Every structure is written in C-alpha cells, then in structure tokens.
Amino acid sequence: MRLPASEVELFYKLHPALLLYVNQQRSLARHVTTIPQLLAMPEEERYALRSAFYEQRSLLDTFIQENPQGFSAEELTLVESWKHGVHGQFYVFRHLKQYTIFLDADSPPKAYGVLALHDDFAAMFPHVPILIETMLLPFKSQITYDGQCRYYNIFLVEGLPDGSTTAISWRKRTPASSPPCRVRPQRLHRAMRSSSASTYAPNGIASCTGRRSGR
Hints:
By secondary structure, the chain is an alpha+beta fold.
C-alpha cells in the first residue's frame, strides 16, 4: 500500500528541498545547488546527506523560519511534523492491505503502520521479516518513510516455545558486533513517537530507495 500519487508528489516537493537546505548549511556537496542536482547525486552521497540532517535536526526549524522555497503555511506545517519522525532500526514485519507493519528494535517493540512511496513494500521486501534502517515520517494522518533505507542480511524464524520471533542467523556483511535481537509483536501504534530507536552503522550493506530519479 502506497500514499496516493498526489501526496507522493508533494513529499518529493518538500523533502528534497529540506535536504538541499541542509546541504547548503553544512556545505557537504558544494557543487549541488538545485533539487535536480540533489536527486541525481549518487545514492551513498544522498544517504550521507540525510544522515547529516538527522544528526542536526535543528536545521528543520531554521528551514521553516527562512522558508527558502516559498512553501505555503500548510506545506510548512507538514514539514514541521517531521520533527516527530523516528530514525532507527525496524523489522519489516508483515504486509497488510492497508499498510505494512514495521516493528522497531526496542524491547518491547513499538509497531507502526507504514505506507510506501513509489514502490510497494511488498515488492521491495517480498520475504519478511527483514531488518532495515530508515526514517519513519508522519505525513498528514498517515506514516511513510523518507524514501531511503538500508537492509541487514538477517533472517528470522517464528514458533519458539515462548511465542517470540528471534533472529537466528547473521549472514555475510552483517556487522560482527551486532547481537541477535528478539521481538514480541505488540498491538499496532499508529501515532508517531518523537524519540529515536538506537542504531548502528549499516557499514556498506545494500540500500533501497523510493525509486525517485533526478529527471
């Protein structure tokens, strides 16, 4: 399940503009001065840019105050809601008709009903559960993600005696320092939380995007 096409277009109007502002304030890629140039950046460079934003979220406030793109009050309110985004590790747990269930890596985990952007999560992650790192963002009355994620080579099995789902194998390229995680599905929380889950560096593990090019 995805956001409606009109809302996906709105997302890609607002979110790249915010990242462009972050780039200008942090002077990360000096040659990138327009949104088409930003969208054409290599994926790893864009990933580094979004990470810089999450490390300094106060830039969101200055972006709203300065409003360099001349967004409407309604659009700025939507951007401001991203203060409550949740950045961290999530288990893509189950695909439902209305949304895909993401469980965070906390214990006990919180659950989120997430809508995709251009590509359905069921197509991106046909085999679940799978552990990823991404940013969940409120979008009006729903929850989406920021269009980028990295996934970890881990597979899970169910049916243990205590009813839990446990990570039983860490495959090639998974950070060696990362311990197995146990998750217990809880009731679905649709409301966003302002606190982030703990994270560890993906360390070059393959990434996925929302399939938005710089055309």
